[in-house]
């Protein structure tokens, strides 16, 4: 017989977990001690939401379950936003919260997390795929099995277990819960109909979203596009799916989108293949009835929202995007299409994406962009956010992972940051928790320490969760944080001004001094006033292996962000 906490941590080790994130508190002290005894690093976050964000970034890049732990009461409620954000990303994160004692249930005690107080089991239900309280030791194996299966199979997502202090010490038979690996994916019977639709289409379109990222269906999207010569556009959350300079790339649609995408939609699309997006208002900002396609084939693992946004005939293709696209590609194609050779592009792309340096070939590819440069405003003393993002692309290696925080700063990147290697740009346009990318980047870097990891954030996000930079300092993790500072909640301020003619409560009277803030936490920091400053700061950050670098860029507060379609 062992004790529950020991058996739980043994399972963590079996899952390949090396780091667990959280903030201590009495009810979870047994778990913290056991993590140390078994050699798993406990990473002290600065806020429980930050712990959840970091655990999600870790799960994303480590390809395992992330674990975030918090104490009872407010420790648990502080993680609710992080759980909701992980759900939006379909990331398998196990949230563990404490409770003072099962023996104390029904009596008055502080930070009560039972039904007599702040019931964490119920609070987590709407932001996770599974939530339960382990009221005695023999329940843990079956509850943990259900939690891990929910977290890692199908749509995937966060799960929650509340474990009381005294239950951690109860005796239990040794047990093992394995992360499922050989689970057959759902293949839709409508895949064959998709082939027929593609063969008949005269003007098709691929509209890709964040679900392609979740299923890692990058190769399948490219192969389908090239086989049937289908132009590709993306939602904001699907930005990193398709190479920007591919001949079939139309760019994004909506916020941060391109005129090419808009004009193509207006030219009369007869078939739109929608892959991995619910087609929310963020994805369809600016979509008008004259852009409606004649037919939609909608690939999604959850068909709840299929056919809800566009009132046109819609074929639902339910299941994992990668597997269903692969099925479409495996089916015979009876229509002879003109042969088009994309090999030259693939050869150029391969030479770029295998080079981890910011080489001349990368810079040459960037310079082919059809978007005209925006000059810095003379005498303003501040930089264009557009040009800042382009400078980032020139300075960063092609394999750098970029996590975009929620705000106008990332929409500038959606419009101007070229994708050289699919699967290197990540952004959530659905739940959209400000500041989440700061923790995601820290967790991702701990999971993948040999790859450059960058967080693009803003001063509003930095006010909310910037203290998690201290987590990277503590772990000596060389994450690069680029903060566009314009002294305001820019997306809100510009949108409110457009809607009602004025903005209230969206401009900071005391602007955050990001460089000083970062240095106070022990990070290396730079404040940039020119594009040359930005490029030099990134070059220095890439050489810094001892800890994080924060790059503050003072950007023009009056520049119009590419988010205004949502205000119309």
Strand content: 15-25%
Number of strands: 20
How many helices in DSSP terms?
23
Strand order across the biggest sheet? 3-2-4-5-7-6
Weakly predicted, low-confidence segments: 354-379
Protein name: Thiamine pyrophosphate-binding protein
Domain Thiamine pyrophosphate enzyme TPP-binding: 407-553
Domain Thiamine pyrophosphate enzyme N-terminal TPP-binding: 8-111
Keywords: Thiamine pyrophosphate
Describe it for me?
The chain is α/β, with parallel strands linked by helices. 37% of the residues lie in helices and 16% in strands. The protein contains 23 helices and 20 strands. The strands form four sheets. It has a six-stranded parallel beta sheet with strand order 3-2-4-5-7-6. A six-stranded parallel beta sheet has the order 11-10-9-12-13-14, sandwiched between helices. Helix 17 links the parallel strand 15 (401-404) and strand 16 (425-426). Helix 11 packs parallel to helix 13 and helix 16 crosses helix 17 (408-416). The chain is globular and about 70 Å long.
């Amino acid at each position: 017989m062992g004790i529950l906490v020991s058996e739980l941590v043994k399972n963590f080790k079996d899952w390949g977990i090396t780091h667990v994130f959280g903030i201590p508190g009495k009810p979870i002290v047994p778990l913290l001690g056991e993590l140390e005894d078994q050699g798993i690093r406990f990473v002290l976050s600065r806020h429980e939401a930050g712990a959840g964000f970091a655990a999600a970034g870790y799960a994303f890049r480590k390809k395992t379950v992330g674990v975030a732990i918090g104490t009872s009461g407010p420790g648990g409620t502080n993680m609710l936003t992080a759980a909701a954000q992980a759900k939006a990303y379909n990331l398998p994160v196990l949230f563990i919260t404490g409770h003072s004692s099962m023996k104390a249930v029904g009596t008055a005690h502080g930070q009560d997390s039972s039904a007599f107080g702040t019931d964490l089991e119920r609070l987590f239900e709407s932001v996770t795929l599974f939530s339960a309280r382990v009221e005695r030791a023999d329940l843990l194996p079956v509850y943990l099995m259900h939690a891990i299966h929910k977290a890692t199979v199908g749509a995937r997502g966060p799960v929650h277990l509340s474990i009381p202090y005294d239950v951690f010490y109860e005796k239990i038979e040794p047990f093992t819960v394995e992360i499922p690996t050989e689970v057959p994916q759902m293949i839709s019977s409508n895949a064959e109909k998709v082939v027929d639709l593609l063969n008949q289409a005269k003007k098709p379109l691929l509209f890709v979203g964040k679900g392609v990222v979740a299923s890692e269906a990058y190769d399948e999207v490219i192969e389908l596009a090239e086989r049937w010569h289908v132009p590709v556009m993306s939602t904001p959350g699907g930005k990193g799916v398709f190479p920007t300079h591919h001949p079939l790339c139309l760019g994004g649609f909506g916020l941060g989108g391109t005129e090419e995408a808009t004009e193509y939609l207006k030219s009369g699309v007869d078939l739109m293949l929608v892959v991995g997006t619910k087609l929310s208002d963020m994805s369809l900002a600016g979509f008008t009835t004259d852009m409606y396609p004649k037919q939609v084939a909608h690939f999604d693992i959850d068909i709840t929202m299929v056919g809800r946004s566009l009132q046109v005939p819609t074929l639902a293709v339910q299941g994992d995007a990668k597997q269903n696209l692969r099925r479409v590609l495996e089916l015979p194609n009876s229509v002879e299409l003109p042969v088009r050779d994309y090999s030259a592009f693939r050869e150029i792309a391969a030479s770029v994406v295998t080079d981890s340096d910011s080489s001349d070939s990368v810079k040459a590819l960037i310079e082919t962009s059809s978007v005209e440069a925006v000059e810095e405003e003379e005498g303003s003393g501040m930089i264009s956010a557009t040009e800042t993002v382009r400078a980032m692309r020139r300075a960063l290696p092609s394999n750098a992972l970029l996590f975009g925080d929620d705000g106008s700063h990332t929409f500038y990147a959606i419009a101007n940051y070229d994708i050289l290697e699919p699967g290197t740009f990540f952004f959530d346009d659905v739940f959209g928790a400000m500041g989440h990318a700061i923790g995601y980047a820290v967790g991702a870097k701990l999971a993948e320490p040999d790859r450059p990891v960058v967080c693009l954030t803003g001063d509003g996000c930095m006010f909310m969760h910037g203290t998690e930079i201290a987590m990277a300092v503590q772990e000596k993790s060389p994450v690069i944080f680029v903060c566009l500072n314009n002294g305001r909640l820019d997306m809100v301020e510009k949108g409110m001004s457009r809607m009602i003619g004025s903005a209230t409560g969206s401009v900071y009277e005391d602007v955050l001094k990001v460089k000083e803030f970062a240095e106070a936490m022990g990070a290396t920091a730079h404040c940039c006033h020119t594009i040359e400053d930005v490029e030099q700061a990134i070059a220095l950050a890439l050489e810094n292996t001892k800890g994080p670098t924060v790059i503050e860029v003072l950007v023009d507060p009056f520049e119009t962000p590419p988010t205004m379609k949502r205000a119309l």
